[in-house]
Specification:
Layout lengths: L4 E5 L11 H15 L3 E7 L11 E2 L4 E4 L4 E10 L6 E6 L1 H4 L11 H19 L5 E5 L5 H7 L11 E6 L7 E2 L3 H4 L13 E2 L2 E3 H8 L2 E4 L2 H6 L10 H6 L4 E3 L27 H13 L10 E8 L5 H14 L3 E8 L1 H13 L4 E5 L3 H10 L2 E4 L9 H7 L4 E4 L2 H6 L13 E3 L4 H17 L1 H13 L5 H22 L1
Parallel strand pairs: 1-2, 1-7, 2-6, 7-8, 8-12, 12-13, 14-15, 14-17, 15-16, 17-18, 18-19
Antiparallel strand pairs: 3-5, 4-5, 5-6, 9-11, 10-11
Helix pairs in contact: 4-6, 9-12, 10-11, 10-15
This protein binds adenosine-5'-diphosphate and alpha-D-glucopyranose.
């Protein structure tokens, strides 16, 4: 079969700009697809905080983007994903993107990303490179499928099929109705079975209605979002489109996340020889001012501090855990102020037992993955989750709540038969989390053989993208066939 041309349209991509796991996915999957022989490219805005990794060159022509009353001009920078033949284009438009934050609460967010959606398509036309598939990631690029189905339908780019991946249904991109005009979309699309929601524009919904095929990042999440409990108001749309929606588990960049080679670590290790992990633990304890106790289990967290991640449960449970168990915590993240404050308070009350890193710190994130004994991820909802995958690969069995991708990636510890890769709990309560942490703690102290088995099995899992890349190719071909049929 002939190789495919695929454009990834995205608001984030590793290693240039990252807020969360979306960037990891968009930085890794294209490399895997390129290795399979496909022509894959990435387009993303150039933010004030974007890191110019590798060689960059400005394209000679500016890009005229048709949004609002007049054409807006952008400069296009071209580079490549490190270590791969995957061109990456960054759109420089200072008015919209010079600020450092990717999302924040900017009042013009919808305009910024309506611009991105239109610009991504104009860029293909300028490059004279018409993709078979445009792979769109979350609400920011939800207008791409609509543009292709309407105003651009009769142009060559209108042949492109779209695959829309839901990374997180919680963020949908609401905007005033006027965005329709700004994006130069037909007003006939401002209706409930297209892009209208509660009298406003919903950019996620637009993508969900208009994309040729839909995916999300785990099979369990694909089921959850079709229910009222997990659909964040869009479950009717997802039930309507159920036949076009599948869940494909995210992989990890196994070369980048490798405890035997990770340059961020002070020592390396493998499943056969975990000595280096003890060195990482000592370095972590030192860095976060934890007591230098090799025999006390460290429970690690690397996360955005938001309700989705269930860290309020941890904040609530922590005093009791620290009063009744011999454990330490190593936490890294930022977000909701009350959570940051609750963890800081715990660090003050339990000196040497709770260590906190703040802000976005890629190096410390890796040290926590490697130097902790157990990873904690009590998410209320979790589309896939990557940090539990990194943890398992780094020999750090995770404590997770049974939701979304955590169900699909972590098998509960079965003591009797010595199976499983982590500790799974059900209820989103501080008590259930405390019990699970207690269980992990008891396993660590009292059944070291059982604990070592968990580590070994976790490290032996294959979470590489190789497993899932083939599934995306199938979805792309499915989308291309469907688009061809629709085109007649
Ligand atoms: P989400 O995308 O919902 O935040 P994921 O588990 O899919 O959750 O991905 C989170 C990614 O962001 C991981 O690569 C994780 O290491 C990284 N990360 C989260 N918080 C921080 C932080 N404070 N510093 C560095 N990396 C972080
Ligand atoms: C989102 C989800 C997370 C997922 C990531 C990558 O940010 O919250 O669960 O792993 O996207 O798909």
């Amino acid at each position: 079969m002939r190789p495919l041309r695929v454009l990834f349209a995205t608001p984030e991509v590793e290693p240039f700009v990252k807020v969360g796991g979306l960037a990891d996915m968009v930085g890794a999957l294209p490399k895997e697809l390129a290795a399979l022989g496909h022509d894959v490219r990435v387009v993303c805005p150039l933010y004030g905080s974007t890191k110019r990794v590798g060689e960059w060159r400005a394209r000679p022509e500016s890009l005229g983007v048709e949004v609002g009353p007049e054409t807006r001009w952008a400069r296009v920078w071209e580079t490549a994903l490190p270590g791969a033949r995957v061109p990456a284009y960054f759109l420089e438009h200072d008015w919209f993107f010079a600020r450092p934050e990717v999302y924040s609460d900017w009042p013009d967010n919808a305009h910024r990303f309506a611009f991105l959606s239109r610009a991504a398509l104009t860029l293909c036309e300028q490059l004279d490179w018409i993709p078979d598939v445009i792979h769109c990631h979350d609400w920011t690029v939800g207008f791409i499928p609509v543009l292709l189905n309407t105003v651009l339908r009769d142009r060559p780019i209108g042949r492109a099929a779209t695959v829309f991946t839901i990374h997180n249904l919680e963020h949908q991109g609401y905007a005033e109705a006027g965005l329709v005009s700004y994006a130069r979309l037909p007003w006939s699309e401002f209706r409930a079975d297209s892009l209208e929601s509660h009298g406003q524009v919903n950019m996620m919904k637009a993508g969900l209605y208009h994309a040729t095929k839909l995916t999300t990042v785990s099979p369990t999440y694909a089921r959850e979002i079709r229910t009222a409990a997990g659909g964040f108001g869009l479950d009717p749309v997802l039930r309507f489109r159920a036949a076009d929606l599948i869940g494909i588990l995210n992989g990890i960049d196994a070369a980048s996340w490798d405890p035997a080679a990770d340059p961020a670590l002070p020592a390396h290790y493998t499943a056969a020889d975990l000595a280096g992990k003890a060195t990482c633990k000592a370095a972590l304890q030192l860095q976060l001012a934890l007591h230098p106790a090799p025999g006390v289990p460290v429970f690690g967290v690397v996360s955005r501090f938001v309700a989705q991640k269930g860290l309020d449960l941890l904040a609530e449970a922590m005093p009791r855990i620290l009063d009744t168990m011999q454990v330490q915590f190593a936490l890294l993240g930022s977000g909701e102020k009350h959570l940051e404050e609750a963890f800081r308070q715990a660090a003050r009350l339990y000196p040497g037992r709770v260590g906190i890193g703040t802000g976005f710190n890629a190096k410390l994130a890796r040290l926590i993955q490697a130097g902790s004994d157990v990873f904690v991820m009590p998410s209320r909802s979790e589309p896939c989750g990557l940090t539990q995958l990194y943890a398992m690969r780094y020999g750090t069995p995770p404590v997770v709540r049974a939701t979304g991708g955590l169900v699909d990636t972590v098998a509960n510890f079965e003591e009797g038969i010595d199976q499983g890769t982590g500790f799974v709990f059900q209820a989103a309560t501080a008590t259930a989390l405390t019990d699970a942490i207690g269980w992990a703690c008891a396993t660590y102290y009292d059944r070291p053989e059982g604990f070592a088995g968990l580590q070994r099995r976790g490290m032996a899992q294959d979470f590489s993208w190789t497993r899932s890349a083939g599934k995306y190719v199938e979805v792309y071909r499915w989308a291309v066939a469907a688009r061809g049929v629709a085109a007649g």
